[in-house]
Design a protein that fits this description.
The complex is a heterodimer. By secondary structure, chain A is mainly α. Chain A is about 70% helix and about 0% strand. Chain A has a two-stranded antiparallel sheet with strand order 1-2. Chain B is α/β, with parallel strands linked by helices. Chain B has a five-stranded parallel beta sheet with strand order 2-1-3-4-5, sandwiched between helices. A four-stranded parallel beta sheet of chain B has the order 7-6-8-9, with helices on both faces. A three-stranded antiparallel beta sheet of chain B has the order 10-14-15. The chains are: A mainly alpha, B alpha/beta.
Chain lengths: ~290, ~400
């Protein structure tokens, strides 16, 4: 009844909801990394999109140059890209912690442009092919679900839950959270806070790279893939509340679904709907849905 | 705000010969404007600048006493940025001719500004057939291809082989709209019908939702009225979502060799599309491709690169004949008067409405096993003669064409 009213057959609606969930999985993973980094380092990591792109390219290079298949790349690529993040933190970011947020933002944004420019010069802007490791799919009642997309949703749920659990429920996580509140005090208890921060950044970067590897078979592996995504992901983080882990995950999935529905009802607006939601949320809850006002 | 007008200017002053007094300020200044860094950058981009310089070199401008300079700029596919650069170029930097300009929305803006300033616009990259239709001007030549020619080549071939019902995925801006409109007209004129269309935000990454709508429409053909990264992502995801296995066929309405390279033959094989030029079609093209590849990091030239080369050669011929580049409309009139002839496009003409007339080719993407060398991607299935390849003069509604 209701479906007839809104003019969309239920099958199509379920299909679109599922697709929204799949896109949401990427938003959730990406915004999760950003939230972890912002929460613990107070740095707005604008390089995140470039690092996601580097993850996809690392997977491609591992396959083309070293013959490492997708499943190996899923582990190796985040480690490699995460290591570049560690180097970047040690060499550059570390020097900016005592300054205003704006400096970290400028640095990471500049680096993102440089990294993208480098990849564009090396590989061109059209991108590279990456074969689907899980071809085929299942014909559900309401849509054809490719195996690979199902894997994306499962993998991202596991990753998101794992990260949330690690930060909110384990001892290591409690150190991390304590270090963000009172680094001096935690240091006094004999914990190496600078190293913890370095590794946290590496972990956040690794998360972005992992999302990149997951994206490689589904989207075009191109130097621009990150900058197309990063703006939306920032909106997701703002809506969820800067630095809130759970907020990032839930808003990521929710906005994926909202965007998916817009693609059916009014496709022209599907790339702006997230920003409309952002504007509304900021008016009603300036700290974001899950953020705590400071 | 972010990527400030990167008006990167190179100087390729190729002649130290006698200064030519008739040229405005003594130099013929060619401005190559295109997408230097975004999703269309491989279609022309930095390679387009190379092609323009190569044309100047091959023309032997220096030996003929012509002083030619090539500059370039990135329009980022945004009409406002393109317009700013064009005004700066014409008013301050003394640019005489703008070449390339892919992205129809930007090209339409440049088209107007060029007329207003009485300069010359040689469009190799843009697709919209409006440039030689309602928007035609005495200062513009549309060189390589247009939406009507693509629709006519690919659309007709598909409808004739039984693809009667169509659903479009259309990039939501001037180019996509024009391509959808022209293809729809061809499909309907040949007895097919269009059952639906969806306008996709440009540029896009995830097309699965739109592909699902195409699937639900039960159309035989899913027409992709988009280009570059949008086309690549649509085709890649269509394969993932079993569109082709489900019995529907894809029709890439505008495709470039670089798209096939990005997709890989495994995914792209069997696609049919229309092109104005293919690097492996003859020895001249192969020689050009070899030079191009050596200078551009192993990439191969697209039809847009070839079009830039060819249009610059013809422009220089006209300027040389006129001994002046000052009056844009006069230069274009001269270009229309002289037959075109260069090593990449062969012999041709430029019509009253500014349309460069040449043959088009219907091509098919090879199977992986058929590809014997790098970038060996296409088989030419059919040559569409110039007279049939482009929209008849009378149908374009170009104000320059006198109604008889």
């Amino acid at each position: 009844m209701l479906f007839e009213l809104i003019g969309i057959p239920p099958q199509a609606l379920f299909g679109q909801l599922l697709l929204g969930l799949i896109n949401g999985a990427f938003y959730a993973m990406m915004s999760l990394g950003l939230a972890v980094i912002f929460g613990l380092l107070n740095v707005i990591n604008f390089t995140h999109g470039a690092q996601y792109m580097m993850g996809a390219f690392a997977a491609w290079m591992l396959l083309e140059w070293a013959g490492v298949p997708y499943w190996g790349a899923l582990i190796l690529a985040p480690l490699i890209v995460g290591a570049t993040g560690v180097v970047m933190e040690k060499l550059l970011l570390k020097r900016l912690y005592h300054l205003d947020h704006l400096y970290g933002l400028l640095l990471t944004f500049g680096l993102a442009l440089m990294i993208e420019g480098f990849f564009r010069k090396q590989f061109g802007s059209s991108g590279l092919p990456y074969a689907n490791p899980l071809p085929g799919g299942t014909r559900l009642d309401f849509m054809f679900l490719p195996n690979y997309r199902a894997w994306i949703v499962i993998a991202s749920l596991v990753i998101c839950f794992g990260t949330w659990y690690m930060i909110e429920r384990t001892k290591l996580g409690s150190y991390l959270r304590a270090a963000t509140e009172r680094p001096d005090l935690v240091q006094a208890f004999g914990i190496n806070v600078p190293r913890m921060i370095t590794l946290t950044y590496g972990f956040g970067v690794g998360l972005a790279a992992l999302a990149g590897v997951l994206a490689a078979p589904a989207y075009n592996v191109s130097p621009l893939m990150g900058s197309n995504l990063i703006i939306i992901v920032f909106a997701v983080v703002v809506i969820g509340g800067m630095g809130s882990i759970l907020g990032a995950i839930i808003t990521g999935f929710a906005l994926g679904i909202i965007e998916g529905l817009t693609k059916v009802f009014y496709p022209e607006a599907s790339n702006t709907v997230i920003f409309i939601v952002m504007a509304i949320v900021l008016m009603v809850k300036p700290a974001g849905l899950f953020g705590t006002p400071k | 705000m972010r990527f400030k007008n990167l008006l990167a200017t190179t100087a390729a002053v190729l002649a130290a010969g006698a200064a030519n007094a008739q040229m405005s300020d003594g130099v013929i200044k060619i401005g190559v404007m295109n997408d230097q860094s975004g999703l269309y950058a491989d279609v022309s981009g930095p390679g387009g600048t190379w092609a323009a310089k190569k044309a100047v070199e091959d023309y032997g401008a220096a030996a003929k006493g012509l002083k030619v300079e090539v500059v370039f700029a990135d329009h980022q596919n945004k009409p406002d940025i393109g317009s700013n650069v064009a005004r700066q170029w014409y008013d301050v930097d003394k640019v005489d001719v703008i070449v390339d300009v892919p992205t129809s929305s930007v090209a339409l803006a440049i088209n107007q500004i060029t007329k207003e300033k009485n300069k010359v616009f040689l469009g190799s990259g843009p697709a919209t057939a409006d440039l030689t239709g309602p928007a035609c001007t005495p200062n513009t030549v549309h060189w390589t291809y247009d939406t009507w020619a693509l629709a006519n080549g690919t659309g007709k071939a598909i409808v004739e082989t039984g693809g009667k019902s169509w659903f479009f995925l259309t990039a939501d801006y001037a180019f996509g709209h024009a391509l959808e409109r022209d293809t729809k007209a061809v499909v309907e004129a040949n007895g097919g019908k269009v059952v639906g269309a969806v306008r996709t935000p440009f540029p896009g990454t995830d097309f699965s939702s739109f592909l699902l709508q195409a699937q639900a429409s039960k159309a035989q053909i899913v027409g992709l009225a988009n280009a570059g990264g949008d086309t690549i992502n649509s085709i890649k995801q269509a394969s993932e979502f079993g569109i082709v296995e489900g019995g529907q066929k894809l029709a890439g309405m505008l495709m470039f060799d670089t798209d096939i390279h990005a997709l890989g033959l495994k995914t792209a094989q069997g696609l049919n599309f229309t092109t104005a030029w293919y690097w492996d079609a003859n020895d001249n093209n192969r020689a050009f491709a070899k030079d191009f590849s050596a200078a551009n990091g192993g990439k191969y030239p697209t039809m847009v690169h070839a079009g830039i080369y060819s249009s610059v050669i013809h422009y220089l011929k006209a300027v040389e004949a006129l001994k002046s580049d000052a009056d844009g409309a006069k230069v274009v009139a001269k270009m229309k008067e002289m037959p075109t002839d260069d090593k990449l496009f062969g012999k041709g003409t430029i019509r009253e409405d500014g349309r460069h007339m040449h043959d088009m080719y219907l091509v098919e993407v090879k199977k992986p096993a058929e590809s014997k060398k790098p970038w060996d991607y296409l088989t030419i299935k059919k040559t569409i003669p110039a007279a049939q390849a482009f929209r008849p003069l009378a149908d374009g509604n170009c104000p320059l064409v006198k109604k008889s």
